[in-house]
């Protein structure tokens, strides 16, 4: 029999960030518990800051009856001289029966102990308390709290539980709260519990009580409000997806409102105002003609027709925050951008201060400058590197750490530095995420690379190497950034040679580990490409990132083209025949030893193909793989392993020459389709 | 050092050596993974090798797992 089931866990306001992080797991964890209890069926999950709701339009009243089978030890092990061994006794104990109740069956060709248990399906209501308890306890919001005298913990105190199966209340007690046929609506609508007569009526009660239960509806309402405000005021509200989701998660009845702040604060860099509003107040910045204006958009949870007090209150809260920002900004401008004091700021235990880091970065930056000879002045580079960390001493960055680099750029301009230096300071931490922008100039790219390379080399030198899931210093991200920057700015970077050159200033670096860590990230960078293609190119010994990228792309295109499977078998044969030949040596092919037409033809075609210059690796690879007909003909007509040692070696050398030419791009035998 | 031929999971006839090999080959890291694995079933019948040991001597699967993890086997 099926009945609707409503489960509502009422809590004090849930914090948005942990809730959103766990959101995708909440449903899965519930479904897993249902499955474990043989009660899996369709359900909907809803949330507001005050409730987690599960709704089944149909739920089984009973579990299905089932049969559980237990297989024990083989009889030879279970009984010795007719007497039961611990294996038999242990198995009976595990099944909860006596030895007499066990039977035998054949499994894997052996006679083993066996017990079949008929399990009668339980009533769903009997299982409900355990299931819900398991579900709630399985939710991982990061931090949790205890309340009252209870020793149990959850992210926020649980205040009410409403579990209704049809119109009946399921009597359970969890976290010291007894289930009741009631719920709580929007606080402004009603402070007291509201009785719910049945599961189906629940939704109507919430709606009337000012609670928009569905997150999608709350989001639509907010976006519609934004649109209306934009049209009415001729402004643009910048929608940050993450912030929007947070606002949806902290409101039950959202209304977007427009507030304003003193124009004086527009003197602050826009990023400071936006950070202040977004991070601390969850306000959306407002623009007019592409410029930030002295307005903000706040999403209120109030249930009222007159929002003037709400707007006024929010304006009152924002003002001191911006005033603080302006105070820090003016102080910083007055003090100027200075590196004084950085020698007292520790970078990392064993790696000295930030001032020491700057010295190391300067060395790396100058080496990179010599290599890449960018369209920039060395003086600018040294200035940018020298001042890059100076903003760490500013009051603004002390308060808003996320503005590091950016404030340095502003202060550099204010201090009379040129644009090139300021950009390099601003962009030194880029890319700071997977989809983040990259440094826009060659100078800023070198500064950003130096920062990452020093962090990488320095931490490897004190054996702070990322393991499995642990990468507290974001070294993986640093290497990803390096790969992206070199690719964007066409900087050649040989992973082995360049790292070796730069590592000279560092002690105790395990270069092997460093290189493999770096190459692992390179593989990650090319995810989406057939992994065996990457392995094939790496097996060619190529370690220069740009060439590596081009070769991977070339081989991937060819591998994904139609008919590659046929090529693959021929060239794997080529690789196998030449496996005992030292390809690092010159492969002399003696034409006078040719006895068959097939070897002559192959040699001629090979010489033609290798004599050409190719614009791309793809064309070169294509031409080399185009030797397939000649190779097939060679394998068909020519016996490689003849008795004449000289002829045999000459034939092997011919095939090896082809393989060696391909190996310059990739080891084709590594490719699996 | 325990004799590598000591039988740990008697029901499945697995010695210290067999269990250690199974752990290494399949990169098992927890007792749960071991007793629920289908590649080399162990500890799934009388279950005595999960805790006290078949002969009540403390020679059990967690001990072998720990020895492998410490690099002793």
What do you see in this structure?
The complex is a heterodimer of chains A (about 675) and B (about 70). Chain A has about 675 residues and is of the alpha+beta class. With about 70 residues, chain B is mainly alpha-helical. In chain B, a hairpin with a 4-residue loop joins strand 1 (about 5-10) and strand 2. In chain B, helix 1 crosses helix 3. Chain B is globular and about 25 Å long. The interface between A and B is medium-sized, with 16 and 12 residues.
SSE topology sketch:
The complex is a heterodimer of chains A (673) and B (73).
Chain A: E1 2-11, H1 16-36, E2 44-48, E3 51-60, E4 66-74, H2 75-78, E5 79-80, E6 83-84, H3 86-95, E7 103-107, E8 110-119, H4 124-138, E9 145-146, E10 153-154, E11 158-165, E12 168-169, E13 173-174, E14 177-178, E15 182-183, E16 194-195, H5 202-208, H6 215-233, E17 236-237, H7 241-249, E18 255-260, H8 270-281, E19 284-288, E20 291-300, H9 308-335, H10 354-372, H11 378-387, H12 395-399, H13 406-414, H14 419-426, H15 442-461, H16 475-488, H17 495-502, H18 511-525, H19 531-539, H20 545-560, H21 564-577, H22 597-611, H23 617-625, H24 628-637, H25 645-663
Antiparallel strand pairs in A: 1-3, 1-11, 2-3, 4-8, 5-6, 7-8, 9-10, 11-12, 13-14, 15-16, 17-19, 18-20, 19-20
Chain B: E1 7-9, E2 14-15, H1 16-26, H2 31-36, H3 61-69
Antiparallel strand pairs in B: 1-2
Helix pairs in contact in B: 1-3
């Amino acid at each position: 029999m099926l009945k609707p089931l409503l489960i509502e866990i009422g809590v004090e306001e849930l914090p948005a960030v942990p809730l959103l992080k766990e959101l995708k797991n909440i449903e899965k964890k519930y479904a897993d518990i249902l499955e474990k209890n043989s009660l899996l069926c369709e359900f909907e999950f809803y949330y507001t800051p005050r409730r987690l709701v599960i709704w089944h339009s149909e739920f089984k009243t009973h579990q299905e009856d089932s049969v559980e089978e237990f297989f024990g030890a083989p009889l030879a092990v279970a009984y010795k001289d007719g007497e039961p061994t611990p294996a038999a006794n242990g198995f009976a104990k595990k099944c909860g029966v006596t030895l007499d109740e066990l039977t035998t069956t054949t499994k894997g060709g052996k006679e083993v102990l066996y017990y079949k248990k008929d399990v009668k399906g339980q009533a769903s209501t009997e299982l409900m308390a355990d299931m819900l308890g398991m579900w709630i306890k399985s939710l991982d919001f990061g931090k949790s709290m205890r309340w009252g005298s209870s020793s149990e913990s959850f992210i926020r105190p649980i205040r009410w539980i409403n579990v209704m199966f049809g119109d009946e209340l399921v009597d359970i007690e969890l976290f010291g709260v007894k289930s009741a046929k009631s719920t709580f609506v929007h606080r402004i609508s009603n402070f007291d519990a509201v009785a719910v007569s049945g599961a189906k009526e629940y939704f109507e009660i919430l709606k009337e009580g000012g609670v928009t239960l569905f997150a999608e509806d709350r989001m639509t309402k907010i976006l519609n409000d934004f649109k209306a405000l934009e049209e009415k005021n001729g402004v643009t509200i910048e929608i940050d997806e993450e912030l929007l989701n947070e606002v949806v998660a902290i409101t039950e009845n959202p209304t977007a409102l427009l507030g304003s702040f003193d124009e004086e604060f527009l003197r602050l860099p826009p990023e400071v105002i936006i950070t202040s509003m977004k991070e601390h107040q969850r306000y959306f910045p407002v623009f007019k003609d592409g410029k930030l204006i002295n307005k903000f958009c706040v999403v209120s949870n109030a249930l009222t027709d007159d929002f003037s007090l709400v707007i006024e209150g929010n304006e009152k809260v924002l003002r001191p925050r911006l005033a603080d920002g302006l105070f820090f900004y003016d102080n910083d401008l007055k003090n100027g951008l200075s590196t004084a004091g950085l020698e007292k700021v520790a970078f990392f235990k064993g790696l000295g201060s930030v001032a020491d880091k700057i010295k190391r970065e300067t060395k790396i930056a100058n080496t990179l400058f010599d290599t890449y000879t960018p369209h920039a002045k060395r003086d600018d580079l040294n200035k940018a590197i020298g001042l890059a960390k100076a903003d760490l001493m500013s009051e603004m960055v002390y308060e808003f750490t996320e503005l590091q680099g950016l404030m340095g750029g502003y202060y550099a301009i204010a201090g009379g530095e040129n644009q090139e230096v300021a950009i390099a300071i601003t962009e030194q931490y880029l890319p700071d995420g997977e989809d983040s922008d990259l440094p826009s100039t060659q100078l800023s790219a070198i500064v950003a690379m130096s920062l990452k390379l020093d962090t990488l080399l320095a931490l490897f030198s004190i054996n702070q190497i990322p393991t499995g899931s642990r990468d507290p210093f974001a070294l993986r991200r640093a290497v990803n950034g390096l790969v992206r920057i070199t690719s964007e700015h066409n900087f050649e970077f040989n992973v082995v040679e360049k790292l070796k050159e730069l590592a000279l200033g560092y002690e105790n670096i395990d270069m092997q580990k460093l290189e493999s860590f770096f190459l692992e990230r390179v593989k990650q960078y090319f995810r989406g490409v057939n992994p065996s293609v990457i392995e094939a190119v790496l097996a060619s010994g190529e370690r220069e990132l740009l060439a590596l990228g081009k070769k991977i792309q070339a081989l991937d295109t060819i591998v994904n083209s139609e008919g590659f499977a046929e090529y693959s078998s021929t060239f794997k044969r080529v690789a196998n025949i030449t496996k005992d030949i030292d390809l690092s040596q010159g492969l002399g092919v003696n034409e006078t030893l040719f006895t068959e037409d097939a070897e002559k033809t192959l040699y001629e075609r090979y010489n033609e193909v290798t004599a050409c210059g190719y614009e791309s690796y793809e064309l070169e690879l294509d031409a080399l793989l185009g030797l397939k007909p000649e190779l097939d003909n060679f394998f068909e007509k020519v016996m490689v392993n003849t008795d004449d040692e000289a002829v045999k070696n000459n034939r092997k050398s011919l095939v090896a020459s082809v393989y060696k030419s391909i190996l310059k791009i990739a080891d084709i035998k590594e490719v699996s389709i | 050092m325990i004799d590598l031929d000591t039988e740990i999971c008697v029901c499945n006839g697995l010695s210290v050596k067999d269990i250690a090999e199974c752990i290494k080959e399949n990169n098992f890291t927890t007792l749960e993974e071991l007793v629920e694995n289908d590649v080399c079933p162990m500890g799934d019948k009388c279950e005595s090798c999960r805790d006290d040991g078949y002969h009540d001597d403390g020679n059990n699967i967690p001990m072998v797992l720990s020895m492998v993890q410490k690099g002793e086997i």
